[in-house]
Amino acid sequence: MCWRSALLLLAAAAAALVVAAAGEPASTLSGPARPVTVALGNRGHAVDLPDTDPRVQRRVTGWAPEQVAVALGAGPGSAWVSWVTGEAQMGAAVEPLDPAAVRSVVRYGLAADSLVHEAAGESLVYSQLYPFDGLHNYTSGIIHHVRLQGLRPGTKYYYQCGDPTIPYAMSEVHAFRTMPAVGPTSYPGRIAVVGDLGLTYNTTTTVEHMVRNHPDLVLLLGDVTYANLYLTNGTGTDCYSCTFGHSTPIHETYQPRWDYWGRYMEPVTSSIPMMVVEGNHEIEEQIHNKTFAAYSSRFAFPSEESGSLSPFYYSFDVGGIHFIMLASYVDYKRSGIHLHIDVSGEQYRWLERDLAKVDRSVTPWLIAGWHAPWYSTYKAHYREVECMRVEMEELLYSYSVDIVFTGHVHAYERSNRVFNYTLDPCGLVHISVGDGGNREKMATSHADEPGHCPDLLSTPDPFMGGFCAFNFTSGPAAGRFCWDRQPEYSAYRESSFGHGILEVKNETHALWSWHRNQDLYDSVGDEIYIVREPDKCLTKSSRMAY
Ligand SMILES: [Fe+2]
Hints:
The chain has 546 residues and is of the alpha+beta class. Helices cover 16% and strands 24% of the residues.
């Protein structure tokens, strides 16, 4: 072969590579991908926004609304508008505001100058109380939740919220778009998926980046503000247990961080519906062992509408997708006796009922979300929620849940189709997203720390429901977890921060893309078509179709 022919051949090979690289994204139809680990890149600047940042400071006076947010109802016909009025208080003695002092009203309509509909709602305050000398207590501003009903699907609504009977107590006019009609051929353009947001400079990068991708809906998979990395005097740390763990009588929080977060996020949350599920940083213990006060009070959930009656787990429909949000930190066991404790199995029973109601001819896609991943090969939080997986995986598998989204690990990982640690052509695709919302252990406990993961957890965590780590010394999971031996179910992992975008194209195809903070806005870190194969995999749905 002459040198000219050799060059031509080389050029052709290079061109083929370029085409392959620039071609269609990979697809789950090709079967399990070989595990890929991407080397640790620049993960940005995980330092909290200070209270002096204008984006977190109170910008309203009197009873004017702030921290305005929109959440979805169980279907496109309803939505929640939430906001805060009045000033929160911190101190040894705090006096809760009277929620009745200001009304909860939303005026809305199809044009900014035609807010012809009106809905009223409810208001509440919550307190975070620490009965220990020297600690500061907190009581919130008045938090309002108003449910709008009878909305048209796929329609832009303009709204103002507040109290129209008090001067200067109505918000400016905001607008949001309702989700498309429920049905197998109707889908939103882009669903953004984020977790572990917090309020750091990384958060601002993630949120700005996400907004440029124009999502129609945001899923926030827990760990919202990291207010529990602060003492009640406002002193923060990278790692609470390292810095304060032995010197404080209770795990403190600094609740004004919630208000800072609500203010920073308002431009997004007032115009793009956001659905939140709780993470471990929302537990926030206080007086009388009360937990989750800020989370439960500040967000609205379609809990009643979806029959759960709990802020911790609920479901909703968006076009041809049925979303189920589950709780990693409340009882997820089947009812009965577990570890000598009588458990109600309330969440599990609700999940059974909810799954049984899903009509796949109407909502072909079934997508679940919760905070702590079942399938994570990172060392941080490794195996934490094994008990939840043991209880619930078979049920989700039997109803052919398509995708699971989680957060918690501050790193990105996507699984091949997996069930019970085994590659399975009808298994679930688990995707864990991460962000730099807190600084805790970031430099030492994630992908950048090689080595063997321990075989047993030393202490069971009561919030995780007990001790199920024996599953890792015998049975299907044994020896199949570790950073230095990427298991076959782990398709792609990279300890980057960012956001994901899910674009469901039709009844069978959805494009998932991972957008890393360090990349240019139009580039993608990981991308795959997730393809449903209902002929092969719909095993239990009571109303099968497709
Ligand atoms: Fe977490």
